Amino acid sequence: MFVDSVDSDIxxxxxxxxxxxxxxxxxxxxxxxxxxxxxLGALRQCVLHDPRRDWQIEHRSLYYARLHRELDAGxxxxxxxxxxxxxxxxxxxxxxxxTGLALSVLGHxxxxxxxxxxxxxxxxPLRLLRRYAxxxxxxxxxxxxxxxxxDDAGLRPLGPAILARFPQTPEGDAELAAAARDAFEPRxxxxxxxxxxxxEQADRLRRAQECRSFDRWQRQLRTDGPRxxxxxxxxxxxxxxxxEQHPPQHREAPAARCLSAVAGPDDRQLLxxxxxxxxxxxxxxxxxxxADRNDPDVxxxxxxxxxxxxxxxxxxxxxxxxxxxxxxxxERARRWAAAPExxxxxxxxxxxxxxxxxxxxDQDTDAVLAALRRVIRLEGPDSPALWPLVDGAGxxxxxxxxxxxxxxxxxxxxxxxxxxxARSLAVTDPSFPAGFAIExxxxxxxxxxxxxxxxxxxxxxxxxxxxxxxxxxxAEEADVQTTIRGRLTPPA
Length: 492
What we know:
Helix content: 55-70%
Organism: Streptomyces reniochalinae
Shape: globular
Protein name: HEAT repeat domain-containing protein
Oligomer: single chain
């Protein structure tokens, strides 16, 4: 009935490895019940080979750190992975993918060790992070972990080794300034700049700070963007010029913002001509501006542009329509969503269904459900198009969407999408509190654990015990703990 996930790096959802890779609560529960060697092997595979599709928005580190403690796993495998000779051959972006998750897991383990009263000299995860920060390729990630977990006595000795990474040349000083600027947490750099035991180090960091401020000032003076006095035509030319560079610079969105400050009623005809023209980026910028102004002709222009063979223009047209909030746009979305499959330009039916999911009413439930089923059938459980449709199924309380939502919950590799699905299931599926909600208490995503804390049935003996453990866990998010305390506190 449905397309399954085709990501070969993710194991099937019915296996222990597949559950852990997805960050599902059942992964932890099955790992604790499985033979220890099997559980440790699956955990090791996940930590050392990051299974996330987007590490910037999906969480796994706390989830794996908690299981690491439950299984009393050692640090040997993580250490061998971090200090493998291959680490020194990685480019910076490759190093983030290769070791970022392992370093984050170490960070949580260091916090747990500190909460248990371990001195910083005896905190093995902290010692690994310090060692990697001075020798590893992904040292900035390790330093960011240390910056929020280590004390001053542990951070201060790292300064000479970190600064030694940057040669004392103009290029090295520029790299040092960039590294200090891009640090997630500036605390270590401030400590090193104030370290009286290393005056030459403090002086070099102060010079880097001054250089960074001067560079920012120069960038502001050298901007090649729109300037005061530019008119509509010049802004459209600027957008098109960026598109024709190699590699292309997509300036459609900033150009549309500039048009909002410059364009007046007398410029409408010029903008309409640009939106019908042949210059792809200028056309996209004009379309976005007209859509933001709810121009009466823009819906027909969007429909025409969505069928253009140019991918940039078609994508920008759909994005411009999705931003619209007028009743005319909503009515056009209903018309597009009702069109027979295959009669519209690609993407129009989907963006129409997304608008109905976000802004429609009870009369749009059939269209949203049909779109949800169509995307699952054609694109599988990991399609980005599912996100607003899943939200819409919950917002509109589409009870008959529950079977499709349960399929997405089980199969998607995205923990963020699974969390959205759980929230919609809480509204549409009467079996959710006694079913998926219980395993959600062990989920890797904070928002998913919070949904479970709100509605998991306490008839299961595991629920109250888990709620109490989360309420006492120093690593748990404050919002989750607030929800839990609300359930555990008896009414006055």
